What we know:
Elements: E1 3-5, E2 12-14, E3 16-19, H1 32-44, E4 49-51, H2 59-68, E5 74-79, H3 84-98, E6 103-111, H4 114-119, H5 121-132, E7 136-143, H6 146-155, E8 180-183, H7 197-209, E9 213-217, H8 229-238, E10 244-248, H9 252-262, H10 269-277, E11 282-284, H11 293-297, E12 303-306, E13 309-312, H12 322-326, E14 332-334
Parallel strand pairs: 3-4, 3-10, 4-5, 5-6, 6-7, 7-8, 8-9, 9-10
Antiparallel strand pairs: 1-2, 11-14, 12-13
Helix pairs in contact: 1-2, 3-5, 6-7
Bound molecules: iron/sulfur cluster (2 copies).
Amino acid sequence: MESRRLGRRGPRVSRLVFGTLAMGRAQAGLSPEAGGELLAFARSLGIDCLDTADAYDTYPHVREGLRRAAAPLAIVSKTYAWDRAGALAAVERARRETGADRIDAFLLHEQESFRTLLGHRDAFEALLDLRERGVLGAVGFSTHAVGPVSCAAAALGVLPEDGSDPWEGEDPGPYRETDLVHPLLNVAGVGLLDGGPGDMARAVTRAHEAGVGVLGMKMLGGGTLLPRFDEAAAFALSFPAADAWAVGMQDEDEVRANVALFEGRAVPDPVRERLGRRRRRLLVESWCSGCGACVARCGQGALRLEEGRAVVDPARCVLCGYCAAVCRDFCIKVV
Length: 335
Ligand code: SF4
Ligand code: SF4
């Protein structure tokens, strides 16, 4: 499989990166052993990087994957920490729970605008310090919005075509050191918090021109674009500024199908038909108490309370599973 470097300091990785969110508690609910086996299987087919996060609860799966895989796997992880102590603790937790001494890339999780970037400045500076000490390879952020990607490009001197300043006069400070962005990017803009698909494509292209690595996510819009699979896949694989794509996978069939796709081979018809019949959706169990924590957590505005229960709007939901992580009663699953 083709490989590319994730920015100036990131690892060189296969273009298909294994997204572990889909194997965790909120989705497939694989045991660490089963998840580790799947990661080792993926590694045997050429996938040499995995994407995880503090919030995914998949560090035990990653640890098992590293132990079982016949060759090294690079790690990309993320944290919601906003201050120095939180960021240092998050990196320590990632190292301790995965067993990896060095994390290849560590990102601020889900940045929404230049304001959230400013609010996480202390955490980002702590990640930069760890990068200097060699504990981290590359640093950056993930986002479902165009604005932060424009900010990464502008911080490194590549402004939008109209010359506007996405930082609105604020000093980008440490974000001039951004190595990697992990943006939501797909042919239809499904799940974007601002702008349209063309805006994100242009922002990503500018960031890439500025030397920032790009690890795309949600190329199929969390499954929403499965009916337009060929178009969505062709867009993702031919988009020159996307160095690699994180794709969630839950079983060997999905791994085989995605490896074939990224290697330019036809996905075998029986596998394609089986996967095409799968329609994931968000399930809210009957014992939901209507506490509203999930509604507050969903950045997509896809949840609301109705008659004392959480209700999902499938047109807005990108099946990220983040709401499931905040439900203390385990009412939400992606099934
Ligand atoms: S967090 Fe859980 S219990 Fe609370 S509203 Fe959401 S689904 Fe219901
Ligand atoms: S409802 Fe849950 S799974 Fe859907 S977009 Fe919101 S946080 Fe993600």
